[in-house]
Structure formats: structure tokens, C-alpha cells
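seq as requested:
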Amino acid sequence: MDRLRGRIRSETGMGAGPWSRGQLAALHRVVHGPPATTSDLAAAEYMRPQSMSQTLAVLEKHGLVTRSPDPDDGRRILITATARGREEVERWIEAREAWLTAAIELTLTDGERDGLGALVRILERLADSDAVSAVRRGPRPTA
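C-alpha cells:
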């Protein structure tokens, strides 16, 4: 998966432009998710809130996101995408999908293409899993 992600980034110019991978990932989450706080975004991206705050500051400086008080709780600040931020994400998604579509059509057999839907569903379930990492849990006791 790392090799495929790397290839997609290379082929679509992700990281070659003004935005880092982390900034694009955060912007993608803001565009495609509900309004969220810095802490919400940090948790979703497995980052420290301080790191997410720095990432969002760059995006805000360039007019890709805005901060506004939560209408339900004025103490919370919600991050939302601007029109320019949505356009930036859509441009990257279109490039990613164009390359991946071409790679699938040119490389995979009909049978392999037919199996992609099931593979995607399996990978999504794994990504959404509530399983605790063995590293965080510690070693299993021996019998």
C-alpha cells in the first residue's frame, strides 16, 4: 500500500506543489467531513493537536480553510473549507483518479478488475477497525 500511495503521489504531483502531504490530507478531511475542531482533525489523522494546529495555520494563511465559532458551543472553533480549498482538493482527486483509472485499465485483467470492489470494501473495514495495536497493547503473555 505504501508503494501504491507513493506512486499515486508521484504521478499526480502531490507534494510537488505548494502543499505537503499532511496539509493535503488535512484539507481533504475538512472538505469531505463535517465541520470539526483542530482536536477532532488531529485525532482523525493520528496527529498531535499542536501539529494539526500548525498544518491548519498554513492552510488558513493561504485561504483554504476558515475558523469560526461553533453555533452550538461558542467555546469551540470549527474548521471549514473555503471554495478555494474545495477546488484544490478536487483538482488533486481528479488527477489521482485519472492516473489510477488508467493504471487499472492498462495493467489488470478483467477478473482482477472485477475483484477490486471486494478488495476496497475489505481495506475500508480494516482502516475503520477498532482493533487495538499489538504495539500499544504490549506483548501477549506466554502460556
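The first helix runs from residue 2 to 12.
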